[in-house]
Design brief:
The chain has three helices and four strands; from the N terminus they run E-H-E-H-E-H-E. It is α/β, with parallel strands linked by helices. The protein has a four-stranded parallel sheet with strand order 1-2-3-4. The longest helix has 15 residues, at 46-60. The two termini are 21 Å apart.
Length: 93
């Protein structure tokens, strides 16, 4: 699969326990063609994070918004995320 990155990145949405919910916020970002949405759920259980990631992937698939998973390359691969964010102190890339 060849991925085309946007010519400009602009706004990058990072969702961390949004009050309106992950799905609603993801839909808003997609609707406004935000280049990236990142799932960052540091305080959630792994099973809950997986469910959220799968829903966000389904929503972003085929849109201009790329889906990024935080800190978990295995989850990113499992749900076919467009990328994984790994912080400097998390693990070696």
């Amino acid at each position: 699969m060849q991925v085309k990155f946007p010519s400009h990145f602009g706004f990058y949405g990072i969702l961390t326990e949004p009050l309106c919910g992950y799905e609603y916020c993801t839909r808003v970002l997609i609707e406004h063609e935000i280049a990236f949405v990142q799932l960052r759920a540091k305080n959630s259980a792994p099973t809950e994070i997986r469910i959220i990631a799968e829903k966000m992937r389904r929503l972003t698939e085929g849109t201009k918004t790329m889906f990024i998973v935080n800190d978990d390359p295995a989850l990113g691969a499992d749900c076919r995320a467009d990328g994984v964010h790994i912080g400097q102190g998390d693990m070696p890339y």
